[in-house]
Amino acid sequence: MNFLRKYWQDLGFAVALLVGFYLMINWESLPQLQVILWLSFVAILLHQFEEYRWPGYFAGLFNQVIFRSEAPERYPLNKQSAMIINLIIAYVFYLLPLLFPSIVWLGLAPVMMGFFQVIWHGVFANMKAKSLYNPGLFSSLFLHVPIGIWYLSYVNKHSLINPTDWIVGTIYFIVAVYILIVKGNMWLRNKSSLHSFSKKQLGPYRS
Q1: What is the pLDDT of residue 112?
Q2: Rounded to two decimals, what is the model's pTM?
Q3: What are the boundaries of each domain within the chain?
Q4: Residues of 156-184 as b/e, b for ≥16 C-beta within 10 angstroms?
């Protein structure tokens, strides 16, 4: 568990490279919708790598800037909670659409989460930190957004999406954000946590 807690984002980066290689050699034979969904999965893995490894100081931003924590190295976000929340998001929320590509609302919700990341990182977090960049913004703008637009364009062009998909997908997205991000961080917070972030992961936001 200690190994996973320390290197989950690096393992995710390795998975992203493997998927990228798989897509490269099978690009012509794979259905385009499957390609888009695989790329969406790669996007979240690279997003998490950007947040927690390179440049990797999202934890400091989250705890110190957003929550004004007196213990930003472990509260409210800590290494354990970050690992659990992000693994569920990547390997459940983003992989389910690949298992059921015909269920469009399953793929629509991660697309919405990708667009939401742009608002969170690009507007909310930057305003709070009085900055132009924070870890997660680059992948949001240059991976989540174009892949999300591609997905929406594809399902619209092939008449795969209907009003029910929009309604259910939006509800699913809101519930996922509430449970995994909002409540998840509250349920797993622990002022006495032994799983502290490194100085590098706190970045310029050390107390």
Answers
A1: 98
A2: 0.96
A3: 2-193
A4: eeeeebeeebeebbeebbeebbeebbeeb
